[in-house]
Write a structure and sequence with these properties.
With 357 residues, the protein is an alpha+beta fold. The chain folds into three domains: 3-51; 80-229, Jelly Rolls, CATH 2.60.120.260; 232-356, Glycosyltransferase, CATH 1.50.10.10. It has helices at 3-24, 43-46, 53-74, 244-260, 277-288, 294-306, 332-335, 338-349, 352-356, and strands at 80-84, 88-94, 102-108, 123-142, 151-158, 182-187, 192-195, 200-211, 218-229, 275-276, 317-319, 325-326.
Length: 357
């Protein structure tokens, strides 16, 4: 079917719906949720809906909920992992012309941070050259004198220079302080490799030694990141930018989308790390024109369906872990996006079975 025919069919469909509303609006009314059930004289009766239409649909939701969640689990995509070494040392300087008043300037080669003894108060800032979502591993080494105390480090992960320039505390924000990406870690055994268990979204990593023996000596021999995403660069559709500005916009957009494509479409890999229906629709549309990961959209749709309320209302957002769970937010115009998001998924993927389910 060509685009013109599709457009005509949609136009006719809407026209028919408007005609029903126009011809029935005067004598009929929609029935509110707190009124006693009745069928005669309602819009449901005018368009021939059975009296138990909605009750039957709700029973169907409860019957199929578990199956939907099993389908979501089966559609979990593999995460692609890629090593990302830091590309330079930087320092941050005040600059009124830069975003949020700070800029990062080169401060030497990464190698200059390695293989040298460090004492409390020492530190450096690594620049990984791009924004990434992933995990960090620190390789600590000893020198000639044995280490006779644990090593304590303050790590701050920053997406932009201001985050590694200005202190986080005192914290006046209304979001939970725990969302800020700073960690204090203590390493007992030197030499060793310490892999941080949490995932971070960052470009810069600030390392400060806050506690260590002044007798023994330790340092770093390597610090690496492992970027994770379910996006596959090999599936990218070709794109020819018209100019340098469009090329830069495309590059930044692909990076942002890639980092949000985890085992669901996250609204943000730094915070909230949740599946939001409004974000999903926009991310899915961008995905159809770029990475074409249809399983990720499918999984996200099934999680939202499987966590609908007992009244059949698709949630505004859902948590993915430790098990799928509906968020407590309720934004009706987000919920209204579920049907068009399913339709757009069908048009992009051709997966009619999922759409009908």
């Amino acid at each position: 079917m060509d685009v013109t025919t599709k457009a005509k069919r949609r136009s006719l469909g809407w026209g028919a719906l408007l005609l029903i509303v126009a011809t029935t609006a005067s004598p009929l009314c929609a029935q509110g949720p707190n009124l006693p059930p009745r069928q005669e004289g309602t819009i449901k009766a005018a368009i021939g809906l059975p009296a138990d239409f909605f009750a039957q649909a709700l029973r169907e939701v409860e019957t199929r909920r578990a199956t939907w969640l099993r389908t979501a689990a089966a559609a979990t995509p593999a995460l692609h992992r890629a090593p990302r070494p830091p590309v330079r040392l930087v320092k941050v300087e005040k600059d009124a012309g830069s975003y949020q008043g700070w800029k990062a300037v080169p401060a030497g080669e990464v190698a200059s941070a390695y293989d040298r003894p460090l004492v409390p108060g020492d530190g450096f800032i690594l620049d990984f050259g791009e924004h990434l979502t992933g995990y960090v591993a620190l390789v600590l080494r000893a020198f000639a004198i044995p280490i006779d105390a644990p090593v304590r480090l303050l790590l701050i992960f920053g997406e932009v220079p201001v985050e590694v320039a200005e202190p986080f505390d005192p914290y006046p924000g209304t979001l939970a302080r725990s969302w800020l990406q700073d960690e204090v870690i203590t390493v007992d055994d030197i030499p060793s490799t310490f892999r941080l268990p949490r995932r971070y979204a960052f470009r810069y990593l600030k390392v400060t030694v806050v506690g260590a023996s002044r007798h023994g000596r330790f340092g770093f021999s390597n610090i690496t990141a492992e970027a994770v995403t379910s996006a596959e660069a090999a599936r990218l559709l070709p794109f020819t930018p018209r100019d340098a500005a469009e090329a830069a916009l495309d590059r930044v957009s692909l990076t942002a989308l890639r980092n949000c494509m985890q085992t669901v479409f996250e609204d943000g890999p730094k915070r909230d790390r949740r599946l939001w229906l409004g974000d999903l629709r926009l991310q899915a549309l961008a995905n159809y024109a770029t990475y074409r990961n249809y399983d990720l959209v499918k999984r996200s749709l099934y999680i939202l369906a499987g966590t609908a309320t007992d009244k059949g209302l698709v949630g505004t957002c859902s948590f993915e872990r430790p098990e799928p769970l509906r968020g407590n937010n309720s934004i009706l115009d987000y919920t209204a996006l579920f049907a068009p998001t399913v339709l757009e998924y069908l048009e992009a993927s051709g997966d009619r079975r999922t759409a009908e389910d």
